[in-house]
Amino acid sequence: MVFRQIYEEGLAQMSYFLGCPATGEALVVDPRRDVDVYLELAESLGLRIAAVAETHIHADYLSGARELAAQTGATLYLSDEGDENWKYRGLEGLPHVLVRDGDEFRVGNIRVRVLHTPGHTPEHITFLVADGAVTEEPLLALTGDFLFVGDVGRPDLLEEAAGMRGTAEPGARAMFRSLRRFLALPDHLQIWPGHGAGSACGKALGALPATTLGYERRHAWWAEYLERGDEEGFVRALLQGQPEAPTYFKEMKRMNRDGMPLLGGVPHPGRLTRFQFQKVLAEGAVLVDTRDKFAFAGGHLPGSFNIPAGKNFSTWAGWLLPYDRPLVLLAEPGRVEALTRALVRIGLDQVAGYIPGLEGYAEGELEQVPQVSAEEAKRMWEAGALVLDVRGRDEYLAGHIPGALNIHAGRVVAHLDRLPKDRPILVHCLGGDRSSTAISALLAHGFRNVYNLTGGIKAWTEHGFPVEKGEALVEA
Amino acid sequence: MVFRQIYEEGLAQMSYFLGCPATGEALVVDPRRDVDVYLELAESLGLRIAAVAETHIHADYLSGARELAAQTGATLYLSDEGDENWKYRGLEGLPHVLVRDGDEFRVGNIRVRVLHTPGHTPEHITFLVADGAVTEEPLLALTGDFLFVGDVGRPDLLEEAAGMRGTAEPGARAMFRSLRRFLALPDHLQIWPGHGAGSACGKALGALPATTLGYERRHAWWAEYLERGDEEGFVRALLQGQPEAPTYFKEMKRMNRDGMPLLGGVPHPGRLTRFQFQKVLAEGAVLVDTRDKFAFAGGHLPGSFNIPAGKNFSTWAGWLLPYDRPLVLLAEPGRVEALTRALVRIGLDQVAGYIPGLEGYAEGELEQVPQVSAEEAKRMWEAGALVLDVRGRDEYLAGHIPGALNIHAGRVVAHLDRLPKDRPILVHCLGGDRSSTAISALLAHGFRNVYNLTGGIKAWTEHGFPVEKGEALVEA
Q: Beta strand pairing status for B151-152 and B147-148?
């Protein structure tokens, strides 16, 4: 049996490619939307993708399952668990099998048993995989967002991101039961999860690619609760300290359940001439300025969003960019493909083109972001400027500038009404990246009196300026 | 703890990168010689390579341990087990620690315990790795060529490749004892080996990146022998059916023990003008023609070796190319870097340059390889041509053209005296790739009456022509 983990760093997302050399068939589990990576792998291994399976309806990325099935003719294996809210729709025309707990399917000699493991989501399933060429006993489990290395999937995602009130606690209880049942499996079972460190789908994900049930049973944070059957303690611990869930998650859930546009390949946006660029802007396109915070501060086009090209590009794009308007990238030509993929992975397909730089714009056409040092910031703070701390809630609680308002950088746009237009706003994060993104959103929404604390709270504390802990003006 | 497996497809070789984000230190285990992959990983993760360790003195590739230590200042951790033949030499000037069974070392929070696991080689050690941030209990073992997925390292490599008579059986017995001892470890221990499917360091390596001790204990081919304590049966089974060991292995062993030239970076051979090319050829350089078998057959420069660019390039280069002469690559410019790396990985450092094609050569300057169909081959065979089967011994025994001589393609040069110059030699393999390589070696050594059975024994059997099984004129 061939087995490959495919790691997508931006969303810390893992998909899997399993092949049976004896029959030439392959199975892909939890594919991302730019599916060429699987097609190329199949080609290089001389295998045909015959099946595509999904552990659950994902929230943090747009699934490539339908895309891959449409491009290859593979059969989809999707969960039939959960209530009506969690039933896949729009599968007409795609060969598919809806599976439930206890079902089995084979891809060549690869035997897959379906286990219903609700908790992260109600319809979540785990695949127990056996290499039939060796034995019928499973050697590994593809656990999706049920079991991670050192953690479990968060059950509060939809309550948090989509306002589905009252789903977090029942989810946590379901997770407890799923774990209890799963622990009956043997210690030597390999666990290959759907996410690694950095994903917003859990809070303490480990950086290892895989783990074993025996190790998790002994050393995961949840092990002690399961050991003593302490469901209440487990639920409390699980729901505590989960990171902010990006608002685009809600949209992903809906599209992954109901269907999304098929791409037929990765889009290649073209370079726009100045006239083309002006035309698409006039038609409502949003300019995504992917340069770093310094370049953005030094001069940018009014109305553009600063989302620097980097590891978290997908996530920040998901937090801030509109799904109903075309996008234009300001990016080095060599980066356009990777950035376009990062957007397509979360369903931001409308990339109208790119421009490589701002040469040719006159000084007066560009806007700057005033940068202030820690000393200047202290003077502004003393003089009554509003301090807007755009870090996560946990970071804020651990220590913030006294009186600072906390709105996560990704949520600034949703809370504009809480911000004053009549006094200076001093924006900061830890080191100045997220604040640049938040400031770009504020500027795009007409705020003018906005300042960036260069160096973030790091610089502030290094100067020994006052910091307080715990709650204050919190709006995470 | 950060953990990455780095897979090098050409030699099916796996190295490991382990990092401790808390202290910013990293450990690399069993690095390959083009070490930039580790430097880039460290850079991207913001870590410093503080330690480099090796499971054993490798035979199939030139170690990058000293290279990486020299470039980073990292401390080397090397085995002090085994007799005088297996002691590392020439380590002066490189910070190093020689370790024995039971020793421990730490890299940040990563705790590494050394286990002596002889069998593949006498000094072989395995690293038990614990993530000290979680627990002191090991979560995984880096088993090198001791334990593979579904297999164990072969103990006969040096007897086979280097003529060290009488080492295979004692090695097999040592392997049995190492396994017995290792099986005392818990089922949930992850096993991350030094090689995957396709390596010549074992015979039945699985295609999965990792396994667990519990799964191997139950399902590996050797499990039953250990279960019933059947050492004799184990030794017999282990020594049976091992693949041919490339002759360059002997050279690798020596260099990996005694030291090799440090590179300081990956070489970038330049493109040679026609005059430069002629000059290096006149000075004794060997032309390595990396085009496919068809292009080579259609026209090649006399004296060149046909080793097509592809997955097994390193291995065939190791089988056939001289270590004491400069090499020139005939390759597409876009492939030169990958090919150079493949050569450097096995210590073929003397790449004098490349030429992109044979344009400009007159018809008469190029040599062809006569291709014969299965029907023509049958007529030649009936008329008394020598059939030279250049496949592996096991393939030959499973079915060959009656009367065929079997010399593995990589060993043809070592057995030229067994080949007639006075009658036609009909060379074949399974499908025509290895035979093209073997023919190029024969032509380079002055043989002229050589024919390639296009389509190999595949075509022969498809025509229903006679095949016999078992021993005959075997010289594997």
A: antiparallel
**Do B219 and A4 count as a contact with CB atoms less than 8 A apart?**
no
With CB atoms and an 8 Å threshold, state whether B139 touches A214.
Answer: no
Instruction: Name all contacts of A357-363 with Cβ < 8 Å and 24+ positions apart.
Output: A357/A330, A358/A299, A358/A300, A358/A301, A358/A330, A360/A274, A361/A299, A361/A301, A363/A299
Nearest to A1 among B1, B139, B208 (CB): B208
For chain B, positions 316-345, list CB contacts with chain A under 8 A: none
| pTM, rounded to two decimals | 0.91
B199 in any annotated domain:
yes
Question: Which neighbouring-strand residues pair with A128?
Answer: A113, A141
Q: Which positions in chain B touch A188 (Cβ < 8 Å)?
A: 187-188, 212-215, 217-218
**Whether residue B328 sits in one domain with residue B231:** no
Please provide residue A82's backbone torsions phi and psi, each rounded to the nearest 5 degrees: 80, 165
Mutate to test the interface with B, among A5, A44, A188 (most CBs of B within 10 A): A188
- Which of A99, A429, A439, A453 is catalytic? The answer is A429
Distance from CA of B69 to the nearest CA of A (A): 24
Q: Do B207 and A150 touch (CB under 8 A)?
A: no
What is the chain A residue with the closest CA to B207?
Answer: A2
C-beta atoms of B207 and A139 within 8 A: no
| Helical ranges in B283-431 per DSSP H | 293-298, 313-320, 333-344, 374-382, 393-397
Q: Which residue has the tokens 């892909």?
A: A28
- The CATH number assigned to the domain holding A407 equals 3.40.250.10
How many C-beta atoms surround the C-beta of residue A290 within 10 A? 25
List the domain range (segments joined by +) for residue A407.
371-462
A205: contact with B, CB 8 A cutoff: no
- Residue ranges of alpha helices (H) inside A46-183 are 65-72, 157-162, 168-182
A209 near B CB under 8 A: yes
Q: Is A105 within 8 Å of chain B by CB? A: no
Across the A/B interface, how many CB contacts are shorter than 8 Å?
Answer: 88
Q: A150, B134: Cβ pair inside 8 Å?
A: yes
Are residues A350 and A385 both part of a single domain?
Answer: no
Three-state secondary structure call for residue A13: strand
For residue A336, give every residue at least 6 positions away whose Cβ sits within 8 Å of its Cβ, in sequence order, or none: A269, A329, A354
Residues A57 and A190 in one domain: yes
Nearest to A209 among B3, B134, B137 (CB): B3
Along the 476 residues of chain A, how does pLDDT read in single tens digits?
999 999 999 999 999 999 999 999 999 999 999 999 999 999 999 999 999 999 999 999 999 999 999 999 999 999 999 999 999 999 999 999 999 999 999 999 999 999 999 999 999 999 999 999 889 999 999 999 999 999 999 999 888 777 778 889 999 999 999 999 999 999 999 999 999 987 777 777 778 999 999 999 999 999 999 999 999 999 999 999 888 888 899 999 999 999 999 999 899 999 999 999 999 999 999 999 999 999 999 999 999 999 999 989 999 999 999 999 999 999 999 999 999 999 999 999 999 999 999 988 877 889 999 999 999 999 999 999 999 999 999 899 999 999 999 999 999 998 999 999 889 999 999 988 899 999 999 999 999 999 999 889 999 999 999 999 977 654 43
ipTM associated with this complex: 0.86
Query: Which of A365, A394, A413 delimits the end of a domain?
Result: A365
B168 in any annotated domain: yes
In a domain, A472, yes or no: no
Q: Is A160 found in the same domain as A297?
A: no
Instruction: Point out the domain boundary residue: A365, A399, A420.
Output: A365
Residue of chain A minimizing CA distance to B216: A188
